[in-house]
Write a structure and sequence with these properties.
Blueprint (H helix, E strand, L loop, with lengths): L1 E4 L12 H8 L1 H10 L9 E6 L6 H11 L2 E6 L3 H9 L8 E5 H9 L19 H7 L4 E13 L11 H4 L9 E3 L5 H9 L9 H14 L3 E4 L2 H8 L7 E5 L3 H8 L4 E4 L5 E9 L8 H10 L2 H11 L2 E2 L2 H5 L3 H4 L8 H5 L1 E3 L5 H16 L2
Parallel strand pairs: 1-3, 2-3, 2-4, 6-7, 6-8, 10-12
Antiparallel strand pairs: 4-10, 5-8, 5-9, 5-10, 5-11
Helix pairs in contact: 8-9, 10-11
């Protein structure tokens, strides 16, 4: 597996699981089959995937290559604006698959950038929850779901971290070691949520108040950016102690930094809830190797292993049935019903408002 950094509802439906229960009875045999031998096709291909960093299990990718002969090459982005720029400029067409949130998937699908991937017969995708399938729509196959929140080192924090204000105005032990997204949606949403406002507000006065909060925060930051990308590069030299993050970031940050005291919290003011989807560019036909990968990653055994290896909450209901109790009950990964109630689903803003937010984030970065 090669990697390149590009610079850069879990509520169960009442349907019949009888076939899957039969599958469970031979689960061990299937694992042996997946890992024990391979059937290499003569037309083995390289599959190029654009994704967030550390978002696919290396061992699952190796198992896929061993079973099919197809290889995976990963490319990374580390912010929403970066992905949007690539899709707008046509760079998305160089990949076989892309991972994007449901709002991006729907928006660029309607613009003709992504094809209707759900019209292609692919095994195992039916195991994804109805809610996640509806979120991704016709242009995406569900992969993961989660929330936006605050990650922090509990051994360093001397105050309770339970509000977005703890990030926007960090206590003295986090001054100079905090990070903030550089994202036209999430960065602004945090400042709006902190004031009890709609995170997708287009009101000019509310956006101005959000900008003032973020501007005051700048002096206390280590830097703007995605905390996972920073920690993966700094490793045990990481200075980070507090950051905006996603529920699936925690395991990666613990592993990369060697620091086990990291915690994740959804602030009391509310948050954003996302579903990430696999999409395919409309400029080319989805090849057989790509279909094989999507079927493999959605197989319940592989989906469960992949999600637990990385530390995100899977959309695959059948995978949840065979996941460990620790994983299913981990509230840092799996949001509680209360968290869901105070969550907003991602949605696409009008282009003019996206441009305004992009300018706000650009101005903030000049203050670093």
């Amino acid at each position: 597996m090669e990697t390149f950094h590009i610079k850069p509802l879990w509520i169960f439906r009442n349907y019949n699981f009888s076939l899957f229960k039969r599958f469970l009875s031979v689960k061990t045999l299937l694992v042996v089959l997946f890992f024990g031998f391979s059937v290499i096709p003569l037309d083995a291909k390289e599959i190029k995937i654009l994704t967030w960093e550390d978002y696919l299990s290396e061992s699952v990718i190796k198992a896929f290559t061993k079973k099919t002969g197809h290889t995976i090459k990963l490319y990374y982005y580390d912010s929403g604006p970066e992905l949007n720029a690539m899709l707008t400029n046509g760079q998305g067409s160089q990949f076989d698959l892309l991972l994007a949130d449901n709002a991006v998937t729907g928006h660029y699908g309607k613009k003709g950038v992504f094809q209707s991937i759900t019209s292609i017969p692919i095994d195992n995708v039916q195991y994804n929850s109805l809610q996640s399938q509806q979120a991704c729509g016709q242009y995406g196959i569900p992969y993961a779901q989660g929330t936006m929140g605050i990650i922090y080192r509990s051994s360093i924090s001397t105050t309770v971290i339970d509000s977005w204000k703890n990030l926007l105005s960090p206590s003295k032990e986090h001054v100079g070691t905090a990070m903030m997204f550089k994202d036209d949606i999430d960065t602004i949403a945090i400042a709006l949520l902190a004031q009890g406002l709609d995170p997708f507000s287009v009101d000019q006065d509310e956006l101005k108040s959000a900008y003032l909060l973020l501007s005051a925060q700048t002096k206390d930051l280590l830097r703007y950016g995605y905390s996972v990308s920073y920690v993966l590069r700094q490793g045990k030299s990481s200075q980070l102690t507090l950051a905006s993050g996603y529920s699936d970031d925690l395991k990666t940050i613990k592993r990369a930094s060697g620091q086990t005291d990291w915690k994740y919290v959804v602030p009391k003011e509310g948050t954003l809830f996302f579903v990430d989807c696999f999409t395919a560019p409309s400029s080319s036909v989805v090849k057989e190797g790509t279909k094989a990968f999507l079927a493999f990653i959605n197989d319940p055994v592989m989906a469960a292993k992949n999600a637990q290896d990385i530390g995100f909450y899977t959309t695959n209901e059948a995978a949840l049935l065979i996941s460990s109790d620790d994983y299913k009950n981990d509230r840092e990964i799996a949001p509680s019903a209360q968290t869901v109630k105070r969550s907003y689903n991602y949605k696409r803003l009008p282009e003019s408002d996206v441009i305004i937010r992009n300018k706000m984030v650009t101005l903030l970065q000049t203050k670093e």
